[in-house]
């Protein structure tokens, strides 16, 4: 991977990477390990349904039977922001200091589904339609009341 790096792009610190992989491998073989991700994997695999459908069991990355390590160059993109405009629970857009921006409302993903963290970072894939509809209804009602 370092040989393929563009000029001026930082290269991988191979020894540091090896230290991290070896530390992770120690967590996998230690049943009393405290690494949150490894603990979550073990917890999920205690569920019978997970044990039945999962093909690969957790293993050491440096286990020779697991195959060689490969490097993949990623170009990270943001797929969604889960909000962009700060809103109150009525869908009214707020200014940076928290004051209401008169006459401006937002709904759907641009408002984080209605402000106040209705969905936010804990949102699950496939659950956005309800938030869009609910926040749109809420903002629409608030706008209608403001103009009445």
Write up what this structure looks like.
This protein has 148 residues and is mainly α. Helix content is 35%, strand content 6%. It has a two-stranded antiparallel ribbon. β1 and β2 form a beta hairpin. The radius of gyration is 23 Å and the shape is elongated. It starts with 13 loop residues before the first helix and ends with a helix.
Order of strands across the biggest sheet? Answer: 1-2
Q: How confident overall, as mean pLDDT?
A: 81
State the distance separating the first and last CA atoms.
63 Å
Q: What does the radius of gyration come to? A: 23 Å
Which series of helices and strands comes N to C?
HHHEEH
Task: List the total number of helices.
Answer: 4
- Strand segment count: 2
Shape label: elongated
Low-confidence stretches: none
Structural class: mainly alpha
Strand content: 5-15%
Q: How much helix is in the residues?
A: 25-40%
Q: Major β-sheet, in short?
A: 2 strands, antiparallel
Short characterization:
The longest helix has 20 residues, at 128-147. The protein has 148 residues and is mainly alpha-helical. 11% of the residues are buried.
């Amino acid at each position: 991977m370092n040989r393929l790096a563009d000029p001026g792009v930082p290269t991988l610190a191979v020894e540091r990477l090896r230290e991290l992989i070896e530390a992770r491998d120690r967590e996998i073989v230690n049943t009393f390990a405290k690494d949150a991700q490894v603990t979550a994997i073990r917890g999920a695999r205690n569920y019978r349904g997970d044990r039945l459908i999962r093909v690969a069991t957790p293993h050491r990355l440096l286990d020779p039977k697991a195959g060689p390590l490969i490097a993949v160059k990623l170009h990270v993109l943001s797929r969604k922001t889960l909000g962009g405009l700060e809103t109150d629970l009525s869908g009214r857009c707020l200014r940076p200091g928290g004051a209401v921006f008169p006459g401006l409302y937002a709904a759907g993903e641009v408002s984080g589904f209605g402000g106040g963290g209705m969905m936010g970072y804990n949102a699950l894939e496939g659950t956005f339609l309800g938030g869009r509809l609910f926040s749109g209804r809420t903002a629409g009602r608030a706008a209608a009341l403001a103009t009445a």
